[in-house]
Amino acid sequence: MRTGVALGSNLGDRLGNLCAARKAILGLSNVKPPILFSAIYETDPVDCEPGADKFLNAVVEFEYEGDPTSLLDQLIGIERTLGRQRGHPKNFSRTIDIDMLYCGDRNIENERLQLPHPRMHLRKFVLQPLADIRPDLVLPGQTQTVDELLAKLKESGEIVRFMDNW
For residue 101, what are the CA distances in angstroms to 11, 62, 129? Predict the structure, then answer.
C-alpha cells in the first residue's frame, strides 16, 4: 500500500533529525520502493507553546507491506531513538515528530491510530510538502486533490521552501 508519513522537527539539529528519521524509516523491512520525498519546508509552529521555534517539515511516501499498527509502533520507536520525549502536552516542541498520514485507502479509527490522519487536510505544513510528490492524490475521505485542498486552505502562518534535495 502506498503510505505517507509527515516528518517535523523544531528542536536541536532540525535538518539532521529529519534526515535521520527518513533514513530509519527507509531501513524498515516492510518499506519498499518507489520512495518519494518532498522538499523540506520551514514553517511557523501551529498550536505550540509560546516562543516555540520554527519547524522543518517534509513528507515521505513509500510502498508498505504489512499492518499499519505495526508501522506505527516502529515509527514511535524511531522517534524515541531520535530523542522524542513522550508525556509532554499536545503540540509541544520536539526533536522529531513522525505522523502516519495514510496507508492506501485504509480507514482505521481506534485509540492508537487514526487513518487517514484526521487533520492533515487542514494543515498547510502537511499539504504543501505532500503536493510536491502527490498533487493529484485524493486522500481517503476527501473529494478534492491535495493541490485543490491546499489552494483553498486559509491557515495562517508562513511556509518557506527550505531545501529541495536532502
Answer: 22, 12, 12
- pLDDT value, residue 88: 63
CATH number at residue 40: 3.30.70.560
Report the chain's terminal Cα–Cα distance, integer Å. Answer: 24
- Domain span at residue 155 reads 2-163
What percent of the chain lies above the pLDDT cut of 90? 76
Query: What domain count does the chain have?
Result: 1
82's grid cell: 531520535
* pLDDT (mean) for 62-83: 95
Structure-block grid coordinates of residue 116: 487517514
Identify the band that residue 160 occupies on the pLDDT scale cut at 50, 70 and 90.
very high
Q: How far is CA 45 from CA 50, 51, 53, 164, in A?
A: 9, 9, 7, 21
What are the DSSP E strand ranges found in the chain?
Answer: 2-9, 31-37, 40-43, 55-64, 97-103, 108-109, 114-115, 159-163
Q: Which helix (H) or strand (E) holds 90?
A: none
Whether this prediction's pTM lies above 0.90 is answered by yes
